[in-house]
Amino acid sequence: MVTKVTKDIIRDFLFADDCVFNAVSEADMQCSVDMFSSDCSNFGLTISTKKTEVLHQPAPGKPYVEPDITVNGQRLNTVNRFTYLGSTLSQNVTIDDEVNVRIARASSTFGRLYPNVWNRRGITTQTKLKVYRAVVLPTLLYACETWTVYQRHARKLNHHFHTTSLRKILGIKWQDKVPDTEVLARADLPSITTILMQSQLRWAGHS
Questions:
Q1: 146 in a domain, yes or no?
Q2: Which residues, 6 or more positions from 166, have their beta carbon under 8 angstroms from its beta carbon?
Q3: Could you report the per-residue pLDDT of 81-116, keeping only the tens digit for each?
Q4: Which of 43, 98, 109, 151 sits CB 3.0–4.6 Å from 88 for a disulfide?
């Protein structure tokens, strides 16, 4: 049996006024940038070189060589990571930076809710957990459907943030020696690992 597989290479990602170019070589990238710059000029548009960055992700085992990409003779700034549509893309092609950013943002969101939600005695625990599910978890797991998650990521997301936050909501202290599995059971919430698996399966078309 012979199976024919087609392959399309996506070279640009466009959303509103944001644009990302993808290339397999420095020469290809420069060519794409030159064509884009020319098209912009035809419509009276100008590329902001201050807001335009270059991220080089070398293949595993290959040395890093800083690329030299220019727009109208002006060299663009090369970075180790940048954010596109809320997600952090890194030079080392891992989600380490993205996980750290998501935890930081979720922690900030959780902290801002202390005076009006977590510390409010008039709000039931069930309502607090609903707020956590509706506000904090989406901040933590934004775009998680596309992540390649390793144990170190799951451990950090689940133990360092998820169950720690739930302990605060439920009023469980560390000296109570309540295991994480019991914390999740009391909150009636799955672990981050389970949530990630469910999200990625749905994104892949499995209900």
A1: yes
A2: 129, 132, 172, 183, 184, 186, 187, 189
A3: 988 888 999 998 899 999 999 999 999 999 999 999
A4: 98
Total structural domains within the chain = 2
Residues 156-171 pLDDT 10s = 999 999 999 999 999 9
Residue 198 shares a structural domain with residue 142: yes
Q: Among residues 50, 47, 28, 51, which one has the least CA distance to residue 39?
A: 47
- Are residues 196 and 111 part of one domain? yes
Tokens of 132: 């956590």
Note whether 110 and 192 are same-domain residues: yes
Q: Token pair of 138, please?
A: 């989406």
Sequence-ordered list of residues with C-beta below 8 angstroms from that of 174, at least 6 positions apart, any chain: 167
Q: What is the dihedral of CA 157, 153, 145, 199, to 10 degrees?
A: -50
Give yes or no: residues 100 and 177 share one domain: yes
Residue 170 and residue 186 in contact, taking contact as beta carbons nearer than 8 Å: yes
> Does residue 71 contact residue 33 with C-beta atoms inside 8 Å?
yes
Q: Which domain holds residue 31?
A: 12-80
User: Are residues 112 and 66 located together in one domain of the fold?
Assistant: no
